[in-house]
């Protein structure tokens, strides 16, 4: 009932917000697409040189690269990226979030086909739950993305992780594509999946992807510090999940297309919990039931207009059970349901060949219901409006945007958090010495914030409705080199970006009165200085054999500058290594590929005080993969073996959450 | 004035020199400390952070003023585990109650060398022990699963679990009876227990439940046969309160609003911490609050967490948990409430115990 009234309210408000934009669009242009116009040419790059010369720093992995990194999910696929710290709670069902440039996971916006995945409750997206079956590419942008015709939300995070799924393309004689996959290996993993793409007519097609996995999640680990010298087994780590996706596509051509998608995710998992000395038992369990419906329409006119419409409905249900909780009921059984309705419209116009302007407007309605006692049942409207422009002049490119955010909330009883309006500017510039120069110099400034989550604002007793947004300022200066060669190397790309971030009004929990009375406050201040380096090259080893090497390095100094009289002043913030590096090297030909990957992290502190007792030693992890592909009767068949943590190193990202030792995964794929 | 400062500086320097190789920065204002003849030193139990396995047992030796951040780990080559909640010395042994790890660590009181680690579990499920008290050859351990474990102090085995109320916390012995505060703390935010179980120490059975104010936690007994029960309340509508139970009749003779944290009794005085950083001085003979703040020199404590009184020297030790996520401190005051010294210890220090020579 609540939801229904919410839906009504949503549409009522929507009419005000996007009406301005809709004035631009005649109903005629919606109804009929002009077929007489020439198909907008799609640039196909002849060289496989990765695109690094973007206005803002960007890093990308494509579907072909996933096996290089032994990637099983989105979190694995981006583990080598510069400036990225993954918080991995270990194992197959362990939560995996990313913090970019030490700003915290809440500052990373994750876009799935242009539409953000959100969690209004705690603001963090578990990237371990997104499988790679249907993913075409994953790109991380610091600041903003290249394209200014984007939903307003894509301007509203410190960094953007764009996950792009495959848009089916058919050759005339083959209306059906079927990819059958099977993965198995350590942790008792059984993982069948399929992707089915079907052409219905010249303009319509659909695809269906299903991924089911089941694993007991068990692995051996070494407990540090409890005096034991034998390995323990991680129990209650099972996972059973199903991700189903059905999409309908319509495209007249590349500049006039529509899609509609239903995505359902179901997961039941054991939560092994922290490894507590002398008490390894956990019987906690988590259930997820997530559904989203998403639709998008895009049209580019020859007169310079470009329209992008997106809409989404999402419902996420979580149930958490601790059957050992020592209260009167003998269990803790918490249920949370989040609902989101989202509408976005973006319109850009090319004033001239080198000047483009855009306006985007998003409206989102979020609500959270729980079975907690005395809960506030918050609802939130978020209005985002962005004006953006991109201008090239001679050797320079400038890109800038101004985002206006307006947030209003209401709760069932009492007064909700006051409404907020925030203006956030961003500006980027590049300089290329000459048209054919391999160098590009770039700089950006971005002022952005993260809004307090429902937990920050309304969690019973802990929440604080007067919280302000957490502000993050980013400054970046970088240089890139990108060149294709005719001999010795196919290409070489190098990127170097130095950055300075300043976070203020950081939302932190502070005890108030005693251990049991905490309040969320805008108290923290963090100063981050960092350096991201990346190098990538591919070289021909023989007429058919190619070698590839890539390396990334990150330096981060992220220090607490909240209070000079505090014991944590100028201390590195928790779980932030000063140095991280990743190297990937491999060889491949048409049939065979072999890759080696290594990640190195320097030591960290697990608490805010950089004291010896809070020290976590550095670690290194090595992975390798081998795959073999051949054709049989027109079908591509692929076998691959991935070996993770080859040297069986014992390590952890998060204290008390050990990562698995050596593990193996076998994959079989047939493309029909 | 100037001279005093100089003297202070010189003596601090001296202390620092003596400390030599031990962690110098851990102890501040060490001037004028004369160790009590009978005492060897103190142990401080710090809870650490939840799920971090960083509970520590710090040791401060009076003779050479040496400080060891984690004596337990140092001598046993393993950690205490997660959330050490109580520590008591009984005879030559010391008993450390580790809540989340669900163990009782029995150690040599002088050295902290482990004698036995006792699992307090129901099958594989943690019972979550909280506090420990002793009577003759028995140790009584309140467990969050609604029981009091009875342990033989010679064999170090748990012989019996007595069922009490929900989430029992503090305990005290008076008149041959054990008083157990049933907090119901996990009924947060609206379903607390509000009873005190009375256990007959000869039959080892619960004989009565006395009703007090919601969420009772600390329990202490005075020398006049009165049992003091401090209730936290429900943080909103029900205020924190103090109940005084007459152990002869097991009747609540007084129940008054009283804001409190931890309590320790020595002779006629109860020292009761309060969240605002003060230590209230309560006369148990007159049953009146004698001083709003025992601390007389203006020393400021951020988050007083535990309190202990040395019956011999009259020194009062108050632990400061600060923000419960960075290292805490222990403040030692003389009997007049003047700060003698302070020691930097682990996260959320909650208990101080005294070791004799």
From TrEMBL, chain A:
Q: Which UniProt keywords apply?
A: Cell outer membrane, Membrane, Receptor, Signal, TonB box, Transmembrane, Transmembrane beta strand, Transport
Which residues are in the TonB-dependent receptor plug domain? 53-145
- Origin, by domain of life? Bacteria
Predominant location: membrane
A GO cellular component annotation here is:
cell outer membrane
Q: Which Pfam families match?
A: Plug, TonB_dep_Rec_b-barrel
Q: Which PANTHER family match?
A: HEMOGLOBIN AND HEMOGLOBIN-HAPTOGLOBIN-BINDING PROTEIN 1-RELATED, TONB-DEPENDENT OUTER MEMBRANE RECEPTOR
Family, similarity comment:
Belongs to the TonB-dependent receptor family.
Kindly provide the name given to this protein in its UniProt entry.
TonB-dependent receptor
Q: Which organism is it from?
A: Arcticibacter svalbardensis MN12-7
The taxonomy runs: Bacteria, Pseudomonadati, Bacteroidota, Sphingobacteriia, Sphingobacteriales
UniProtKB/TrEMBL annotation, chain B:
* InterPro entries for the chain: DUF5074, Host-pathogen_enzymatic-act, WD40/YVTN_repeat-like_dom_sf
The record's PROSITE patterns line, in alphabetical order, gives: PROKAR_LIPOPROTEIN
Read off the Gene3D superfamilies from this record: YVTN repeat-like/Quinoprotein amine dehydrogenase
User: Mind telling me which Pfam families this protein's record contains?
Assistant: DUF5074
Signal sequence segment: none
Supply the name of the protein. Answer: Surface layer protein
